[in-house]
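3.2 Worked example (two chains)
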Amino acid sequence: MQFLKDAKYTLHVAFHPFDGFWDLKYENKGKLRIALTILFGVTVMMILKRQYAGYVVNFNYPLDLNSIDELKYIVLPFLLWCVANWSLTTLMDGEGKFKEIVIATGYAMLPLILIYLPNILLSNVITLREASFYYLLESAAALWFVWLLFIGTMTVHQYTVMKTIMTMLLTVVVMGVIIFLGLLFFSLIQQIVAFVYTIYQELSLRA
């Protein structure tokens, strides 16, 4: 099955990122459906982690968990990163298309699934003294993800090491700007709606 073959290739990208991301861009081995499947998998894994991680490392109250809220912690940052990176690299002579950025970012998230799943199981059998192993694996997953994202960004846009680092840092800044403008826009819309509603009430009372 082609889907399974494409999914298996994500492991090659995770363990051989230089060759893997090169093939994703120039050999057309990267698939958008696989990247989105990984994004969905990470979202599910984060929900499972908050719900079923052992009490030694889990400080969430399971009954208060809202799975929909997890979307803003995973899907929203993913979309913001892709949009901000594409917007920025368009002005910085980046060679990556928006689709390629989405694919590279999605594939880079695979370590979060590979490590979080066994880590959830581990968290249910460790003691408080052994909790450091859990946090060590958490850190390893984050570092692995950032490393793959770095190589993916560098390969997709054909940047140097320093330009890639600068681009990733600026992308985070642009994400903050987008969030600020978004909040400002919705606040403005809210005020306009409230103003129009107030005028409507005044006119209704005078009629």
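3.2.1 Second chain
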Amino acid sequence: MLIPPAHWESQREQHVDLLGMPKSPREFLEPLLANLVAGSAAVCDALDRGKVEISADGMLRLPAIDALPEKSEPVRTRETVYKLIGNVQFPDLLMQVDAATNFSDALLGHRAQTADELVGLYGALLAHGTDIDAKGVASMIPGLEPSQISVAMRALEGSGRLRRANERVAQFQRQIPIAAFWGDGDKASADMMSLDASRHLWNARVDPRRRTYAAGLYTHVRDRWGIVYDQPIVLNERQAGVAIEGVETNNRGEDLLRLSLVAVDTHGYTNPAMAIAKLLGFDLCPRLRDLAERKLHLPRVFRVPEGLEAVTVRSVSLSAIERGWDELLRLAASIRSGRVSATLALQRFGSAAQGDPLHRAAEHLGRLLRTVFLCDYIAIEDFRREIHTLLNRGESVHQLQRAVYSGKVAPERGRRRDEMLAISGSHALLTNIVLAWNTSRMHEVVERLKREGTRIEDEWLRRIGPAHFSHINFRGTMKFNVERYADTLVQRRPDTRNAASSR
């Protein structure tokens, strides 16, 4: 699955340059060890100032992050903004975003030829991306037959269509001026939400929290709120591979803003995953649930600052990293070139890989990187708050996703992998459409209020997000006013009678 050894030997320099990594392990480790010295000193300083403590069992204890001061202005501003936005029907919202992004072009592969074709596409999107089946959608949209929706649903399973449509909508949402208050766009969170499903579904497993069978949908949410990657996954498996795969897929796009950091929970990281992520050019930042994980793993030759001996473990071998450096670069280059996915590569770094020199190098490099991250996480409260904020935004988007897909995956749905991918992609697209529409309307309302002399501070806008959905009617009879947007969304055919008269 990796780059063949002969090919690697002859083109090693080109692949390493593409990764942007140094050819020598020493060049990579020296600045990393310097960061470790500075980070451990910062932890000692935090310990002296009482910002962190070491318990009797030798564990780092972090106090809860102080909540931001409660201010009534951001709350009132949010209520005012959404009150002025008003209620909206889901069909109107879909068509307005489509007129701004032409995501229907990406889904069809061409401009819609007729209004019926366009409405059928919307019906298929709803049938894939919500808990309503083709017959249910047809009963909600007058004049639409279930057979039309079924044909369009199969078309949406085509390779790459939903991904391209999602990119269009996410890029449109990210470029709306108000989104700049929420982040720079180069950070994201990655997490899974579960959908109740039949026990006969191939990727359904028992959700340990709810004790019901469910399928997982894994999404990457940018700090500006848009979903940049989605993929169906199996519950109860480590999610580190798909977390890396989503960032790498996004960063391969030439016209997409690269992600430099992705925040994950405990399930979204392993030590080898942190190493591979770093070699691919971004940081994997986990919010660790178990305090036992908050140990500082250091090289054997590292001088431990006074006061940190109880929370340090000398378990990092620099020589193991140096011996496996070339193979680490070969693995990262194989992922970058598309020969193997990060998800598949990380599956091979399970317990069965222990003892392999490549796994050993990745494990020890990951321990070192995790220690550098923990030093920043412990000593810098603003950095810790940023990680939590990213993950909380992802949870807010999950609430919106559950409003879009409020039911259960039908027993006959998702049995083919292409269909499960279509369910995930359509669901992400519908969620992105809501986020984009809310962001656009928020910007218009805020600009209007400012012109009228209403005081709105930037800090208030940073605390108001677009994952709001109580003003959207997702159900009921749906009427698509195609004629209003026909010039933008439907391919107009020339009038033959006018053409004949002109001749």
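3.3 Remarks
The chain is about 50% helix and 10% strand.
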